[in-house]
Amino acid sequence: MPRDASELSRRLARDAEAVCRRYLSNGRRQGRYWTVGDVRNAPGRSMFVRLSGPESGPGAAGHWTDAASAEHGDLLDVIRESCGLIDFRDVAEEARRFLSLPRPEPRQALTPVRTPVPAGSPEAARRLIAKSQPIGRTLVETYYIDSMMVIHEGDSLGHGGPCSQSGVNVVAGHHGSSSSQGGIFGQLG
């Protein structure tokens, strides 16, 4: 079953005339080409789709050009534009529907298997720090400010790990504490 765009495009190109009849119904066959106004199925003759040719490369079946706008592409682009689709997932689903292909099986994300470690161990602490995020501009920062803690610019929570990149340090103190000098928020009092 095709999973990538190039394979879907090749399969559509094998039956280019049927694709054009379905998605560019305002056009008609003229020799080795399907002509229509544009990729959005407007009446006219400025766009042409190659109905036969090699599987890939210059002159490949299923490739199209609009002489009026200089747009060009393949039959996946025709499906996208004529159906008004934006997300490629929707385009691929429509192409599979046209080709009577089954829906792809969802890929399972590869998640690393980690062995459990005892709570409170140095490894558990390392893992916790590795998963931590900066607190700047979050509810946590608001909590620390409301609970009379001072946050200094350039410092960090914890010792090492991603938190050290946050640029913020929480220091126990209260509104009048001299430790608030030079902090992001100055004195909180």
Q: Which SSEs are present, and which pair or pack?
A:
Layout: H1 5-14, H2 16-23, E1 28-30, E2 33-36, E3 47-50, E4 64-66, E5 72-73, H3 75-83, H4 88-98, H5 122-131, H6 139-146, E6 149-153, E7 168-172
Antiparallel strand pairs: 1-2, 2-3, 3-4, 4-5, 6-7
Summarize the structure.
By secondary structure, this protein is of the alpha+beta class. It contains 6 helices and 7 strands, in the order ααβββββααααββ. It folds into 2 domains: 94 residues, DNA Primase, Chain A, CATH 3.90.580; 52 residues, no CATH class.
List the main descriptive attributes of the protein structure presented here:
189 residues, alpha+beta, DNA Primase, Chain A, 2 domains, five-stranded antiparallel β-sheet, two-stranded antiparallel sheet, 7 strands, 30% helix, elongated, disordered C terminus
What do these coordinates show?
The strands form 2 sheets. The protein has a 5-stranded antiparallel β-sheet. The termini are far apart. A hairpin with a 2-residue loop joins strand 1 and strand 2 (33-36). It has helices spanning 5-14, 16-23, 75-83, 88-98, 122-131, 139-146, and strands at 28-30, 33-36, 47-50, 64-66, 72-73, 149-153, 168-172. With 189 residues, the protein is α+β, with helices and mostly antiparallel strands. The protein has 2 domains: 5-98, DNA Primase, Chain A (Alpha-Beta Complex); 129-180, no CATH class. The chain is elongated, with a radius of gyration of 30 Å. It is 30% helix and 14% strand. Helix 2 runs parallel beside helix 3 and helix 3 crosses helix 4 (88-98).
